[in-house]
Amino acid sequence: MPLKNTRGFTLIEVLVALLILAVGLLGTASLMLLSMKSNQNASQRTQASLLAYDLAERMRMNRTVAVENAAGSDYTMSLKANDSPPSSPNCFGSSTCSNAAQRAQDLREWTENFIDINGVGVDGDDYRPAIAGSTFVITKANTNQYTITIEWQESINGARAANDLDNDRDVTKSFSLNVEL
């Protein structure tokens, strides 16, 4: 009896269609993961840029202290994301805050933003650094020139080790800003 009027799909056709669909979904998931990782890396670069420019503007606003040559009275310092911020006077709402006290306040506020983007001791949450695992160094090249450097670890695709399950490798990225006052 011939099967001329057969309707529907055979099991092999269904399995081939499922295989094609599965490969397509895996490709889509892979692209989404790569997109999320690229977005995270771009976010870290943006945070580094914003933090560096914020400090540069603070130094420009307090230029008198920033160009001093006395040790410990300028804006030079270095810090890791898990360090404690420096102490500072409370210059909020005070018009009698000296330039040196304003410098200490600037560095405290800036490092608080660097160490905990949510606000150190304000929100009650755990510390959440602006850029996880990062460090910053502020160096003074001459009387009126500073370099602000922020370094962090960024994850990129590529074989790292045989026992590495995510097949990524971490590279050190940095953002440097030369500030002339």
From TrEMBL:
It comes from the Bacteria. Residues 33-102 form the Type IV pilin Tt1218-like domain. Its main location: membrane. It comes from Atopomonas hussainii. InterPro entries: N_methyl_site (IPR012902), Pilin-like (IPR045584), Pilus_4_PilV (IPR013362), T2SS_protein-GspI (IPR010052), Tt1218-like_dom (IPR054402). It is a single-pass membrane protein. It is found in: Cell inner membrane. Belongs to the GSP I family. The chain crosses the membrane at residues 12-34. Pfam families: N_methyl, Tt1218-like. One of its GO terms (biological process) is protein secretion by the type II secretion system. Keywords: Cell inner membrane, Cell membrane, Membrane, Methylation, Transmembrane, Transmembrane helix. The keyword Metal-binding does not apply. This is Type IV pilus assembly protein PilV. Signal peptide: none annotated.
